Amino acid sequence: MRATSYITILLCTISLCFGQSDSLLNALKDKQGKDRVEILHQIVLDQWLNYPAKAMQYGEEALQLSTEINDSLMISKSLRLIAGVYYYKGDYDQSLDYNRRAFDMAVHLKDSSLINNGYNNIGLLYYNLGSYQTALEYLLRARDIKLKIGEIYGMATTLNNIGLVFDRLEDYEEARRYFGQAYDEATGINKSDDQLYALNNIGITYIKENNLDAALDHFRRGLKLSEEIANINWGAVSLRGIGEVKLKRGDLDSAYYYFKESLKNSESIDDKKGISEAYYLLSKYALAKERAKEAIQYLDLGHAKAKQLQIRQQQLSNLKLYSSIYALQGNSELEIKYLNEYIELRDSLFADVVSRNLNLIPLKLKEEEDRLRLAEQQAEIRNQLITNQLFTFIIIITVPLLFVMIILLRKNDRKNKELQRNNEELKKTQKLLITSEKMASLGVLAAGVGHEINNPLNFIKNGIEALARKVEQNSDIKDEEMDAYFKIINEGVDRATNIVKSLSHFSRKGLEGDERCNIHEIIENCLLILNNKIRNKIRVSTNFTSQGAEVKGNEGRLHQAMMNIIANAEQAIKEEGTIEITTLKKEDHFEIWVEDDGEGIPEENLMKISDPFFTTKAPGEGTGLGLFITFSIIEEHNGHIDVKSDGDRGTKFTITLPL
User: Fold this and answer.
1) Pairwise CA distance, residues 454 & 171, whole Å
2) Strands 550-553, 640-645: parallel, antiparallel or unpaired by DSSP?
3) pLDDT band at 488; cut points 50, 70, 90
4) Domain 517-658 is of which CATH architecture?
5) What is the distance between the alpha carbons of residues 639 and 653, in angstroms, rounded to a whole number?
6) Domain boundaries, the chain
7) 17-110 has which CATH code?
8) Is Coiled coil one of the keywords (predicted)?
9) Pairing mode, if any, of strands 640-645 and 577-585?
10) What angle do CA 571, 577, 583 make, to 5 degrees?
11) How far apart are CA 107 and CA 522, in angstroms?
12) Chain centroid to CA 377: how far?
């Protein structure tokens, strides 16, 4: 289902203007200073949706001029507008950079309203980047600041955006709670646009839960309100929502009417994003009518718009629909072509999310270190002040107050020791935070990979079974060679399914540490997942003990630890080599040896490999957390790791775990 395709995200404090370009450009000709900057800002707002390159040009001019006249408020707004242009172009990384600069300026100005806007905008960007928990943190801060300063304007937008995050987290009930709050806030200040936004978003959540009656009711209310306030953009969203309900109910003629009306509205305001979404839905309608050629024509038009605007989620939906249409036509070549494009784009997006989630960990650590450093500096200043005061007392009062000075010094010493203990506790907490966040991130990501891989596997499997039935029904087609092909394909699918099952071990969320874990099965699962990397260049030799391989622990964490160690061995072998894995069961413990003949570890680095963020890889190729997390996991299981290397070639990891 494609219900989320027409959720439009609004950056806080930004309103859209249409049809003002000519008058604004004329007004710009004789303006200088702040007046010119203000008009440049209006032009950016007018053009950023449909003419992003021009909008960017005017935004950069506004930023340069604001900097020249040294107006901090103008600089902040220019930065936010440039961030908005990048946002609607789909370049979220650049948008995040400019929003952070605007946020720093807001903090410098001590402007609570601008700080609130910064939290809101940065939260939306993390939402689009797929970092939903981080997005939620920023958006909740934005809400809390608005409550603290009593700012009503914009609260509905913030609540709507929080609802969108819960929608992506598939907590639809919580999403509707925030959308409902947004609707009430907007109603209280007669903000019809935000009311309309909330109604459409509530309708979308109901479509996802297949509650079509409730969805239709909210979309119709949205359409009526859009007509009352002449909001063509949101009216088009409501029309698409009604059309999708009709399509799901099989009322194809009505669905076609609403999709065409939506397209007409979006074209009237040159809303390219809305046009792209309308064509996508018209393609689904044509496919339901079994008019594949017409479906492809609609999809071609919509896909061109999506590529032009770099709307990657829309492109994903389009590519998946292309593949489905050509599959129904029996055109396997184009079906596979578009399926491969879909997989490549999806994997690219997923890789971006992985990279950003991992990069958030060092960022949070840096913020915590900065906080500690500030606390230490404040303590030093406080200590110096106390010392100066004590010397003053000695000079003025001398001996009679000597005892008072001693008491104060002892009290100060106790405070210093207490502060030192607190700092040590904070540093310990940091390490635990890194480990838990990293494990949670990797587990969720692995679950996502497994879910995404399973979908095409099920599709292929079902297709094979259907084709087999057709072959059986037609004796002229069936032959031994085709049976062999079926067997090969099924074996391939079963193998891929086993990989998905192996990945599920990494997404286990249980915190139990007393389950019985089979180390041999864990190692085999890790080798299965890494098979694509090792099969062409590395020979893996396993020498497993026959005396049993069960230890007490957390299976998901032990999977992660073994995966990191085996992957580390694979990365050490640049061309061809061997990895030997040996297990031994002793009287009270279990040993795993992982040996490789790849590049060794220099002696000066052996003591550092368990340190967080230590890496010898090039920037961007590693976070330096893999072995740190591995050592932490084994220590949690009351075990230990011993590493030996001659420096030039070959490394041996010995993992010892209690039985």
Assistant:
1) 22
2) unpaired
3) low
4) 2-Layer Sandwich (3.30)
5) 13
6) 17-110, 353-506, 517-658
7) 1.25.40.10
8) yes
9) unpaired
10) 85
11) 49
12) 35
